[in-house]
Amino acid sequence: MPVKIPDSLPAMGILESENIFVMGENRALHQDIRPLRLAILNLMPTKIVTETQLLRLLGNSPLQVEIELLHMESHESRNTPAEHLLEHYSSFSEVRESSFDGLIITGAPVEQLPFEDVDYWGELVDVMDWARTHVYSTFFVCWGAQAGLFHYYGIPKYPLPQKMFGVFPHRVNVRFERLARGFDDVFYAPHSRHTEVRREDILAVEDLVLISESDEAGVYIAVSADRRHIFVTGHSEYDPLTLRSEYVRDVSRGLPIEVPKNYFPDDDPEKEPVVRWRGHASLLYANWLNYYVYQQTPFDLGQIPPAGFGSAD
């Protein structure tokens, strides 16, 4: 089954050319099923790239998913045309009376700032508080995961001596966790961040379960005990060339950046990268949609129970 998106969204043509099953709104209107309602709060500056990456993964499941793209009103986007935002995005204030089966909160290139110094932090806190009663399952990505762990549990982020940058091997700590169903004993996922959360802080919170980690990249997946909140510190959604683009960008700016690890053959940036994470990424999002959203959400979204964990506030 497809992911349902507006016919005019740029991702439509890209995904169709890749044989990803997407469905335009006009065709979806003639289907007699209730699609999953999924919101994507896109905090990345290159919104069209990020929305396409996520839609590619969400379209690779047997479930029909209706997408609502969200942006922060308290932040002015400089890298996405205003026309694109006006046509395809809603603000939080426009949807706050609505309910959703699932919500994805993306990463953002702000991890070196204190959370409270991010210009849209107050609005993001409102979204996270709202999600506890209006969203069944929330999936946090990279900085989004750090933000969620900080707001809900008071878990800090720590600066790294150098950027965690590359594709790293991971292991599953909880063998029969449904989110990890089908994962290899060792699987790969991309990371691109200047800060980290630490395993001892995760393990100190009774309400959190550490599902997956890496000897080199550290904490990868943690979940709340009720499985309503998924925190993923990496970027499994990345395209094959995303890390290369980030590397070239930083080199051109004269920033201190190492060649991304386990990415270019022989660590040679002139060679085509090797994709090692595509299968894992598809499983991660398909498992979340199936086991944590579709199988759990009430048919009547007005009956979503409040998430059952405490806040650090």
Task: Name some characteristics of this structure.
313 residues, Rossmann fold, globular, alpha/beta, 12-stranded mixed beta sheet
Using the coordinates above, name the CATH class: Alpha Beta
Strand content: 25-35%
Q: Give the overall form.
A: globular
CATH superfamily: Class I glutamine amidotransferase (GATase) domain
Word description of this protein:
It is a single chain. This protein is an alpha/beta fold. The protein has one domain (3-303): Class I glutamine amidotransferase (GATase) domain (Rossmann fold). It has helices spanning 11-17, 25-28, 47-58, 82-88, 92-95, 121-134, 143-153, 199-203, 242-252, 278-294, and strands at residues 3-5, 22-24, 36-41, 65-71, 89-91, 100-105, 135-141, 158-172, 186-196, 208-214, 218-224, 229-232. Strands 1, 2, 3, 4, 5, 6, 7, 8, 9, 10, 11 and 12 form a 12-stranded mixed sheet that branches. β10 and β11 (218-224) form a beta hairpin. It starts with a strand and ends in a 19-residue tail after the last helix. The mean pLDDT is 89.
What's a concise summary of this model?
The protein contains ten helices and twelve strands.
Topology at a glance:
Elements: E1 3-5, H1 11-17, E2 22-24, H2 25-28, E3 36-41, H3 47-58, E4 65-71, H4 82-88, E5 89-91, H5 92-95, E6 100-105, H6 121-134, E7 135-141, H7 143-153, E8 158-172, E9 186-196, H8 199-203, E10 208-214, E11 218-224, E12 229-232, H9 242-252, H10 278-294
Parallel strand pairs: 1-2, 1-4, 3-4, 3-6, 4-5, 6-7, 7-12
Antiparallel strand pairs: 8-9, 8-10, 10-11, 11-12
